[in-house]
Design a protein that fits this description.
122 residues; Cytochrome Bc1 Complex, Chain D, domain 2; binds heme C
Length: 122
């Protein structure tokens, strides 16, 4: 007589589900590529840059200076795409310079999230 244990240890049965899940995950991940996160070392550099370089115009406490405030409160309603474009290309006619030469688009997107989440405050 077959015991429940014998049924569970059948190799066909125990492999089928994880394999289907793995294949489904691969298909989902390739259909919706996630923006590459900067490495943790790079994240430290980006936060340092936000504070000291962006902060030289936007204020070390982000409350504004020559540039407008960059606080979660003031940036909440703004689209990530718009803010990313402003940072990459600057704002012609204002002192806001383009930063495309220094950062990749993924890095700027990460910085926009840091600004909106207030990570830059720490
Ligand atoms: C030389 C001074 C200067 C530096 C450095 C600078 N900015 Fe700006 N930034 C400005 C000015 C001036 C404006 C536009 C004027 C305004 O909106 O008050 C601006 C506008 C912006 C805006 C749009 C704000 C809005 O409300 O529309 C964002 C976002 C921004 N800067 C982010 C950054 C980031 C991120 C950095 C660092 C990578 C940076 N800035 C560095 C001066 C600067």
């Amino acid at each position: 007589m077959k015991t429940p244990m014998a049924r569970c240890s059948s190799p066909k049965r125990s492999n089928a589900l994880p394999r289907a899940v793995a294949i489904a995950l691969l298909i989902i991940m390739s259909a919706f590529p996630v923006a590459a996160e900067p490495s943790s070392d790079r994240q430290v550099e980006l936060l340092y840059f936000l504070k000291h370089d962006c902060g030289s115009c936007h204020g070390l406490t982000r409350k504004g200076g020559l540039g407008s405030p960059l606080l979660p409160e003031t940036m909440a309603g703004r689209s990530d795409d718009d803010l990313t474009a402003i940072i990459l290309d600057g704002m012609p006619g204002t002192p806001m310079p383009p930063w495309r030469a220094l950062f990749t688009e993924d890095e700027v997107r990460w910085m926009v999230r840091a600004i909106k989440q207030g990570t830059w405050r720490k």
